[in-house]
Design a protein that fits this description.
alpha+beta, three-stranded antiparallel β-sheet, 3 helices, 5 strands
Amino acid sequence: MGDRQRIGPLSAISARLGLLLVLITSASGSQLKPNETVQFLSGIATPEANGWRIDIHGWVYESEYHKPITSLFRRSLGIRHDELTPAELATFRERAQFFLVDNERHKRM
């Protein structure tokens, strides 16, 4: 086979879905602002008589780090700042952001 690698059927489907999503996004819907992030969620694809029905859902949000709010959130969970290593604190901040974001409701892409 030389230097070429075969991709599995799931990889091929994922690549096609990604391309389809880019085409759909550019054809209709809202443009993302520079400070917005989109997180795609697991979806469902079902075969139909004339092709496939694919439901793709996502979450659009603005992620901003707010030290006072993050600290309040950490304390409300009973976690003390001095109990965390710098690496643990960085991990907490990274993961806590998903609870403290500005959710962009009803945004369509």
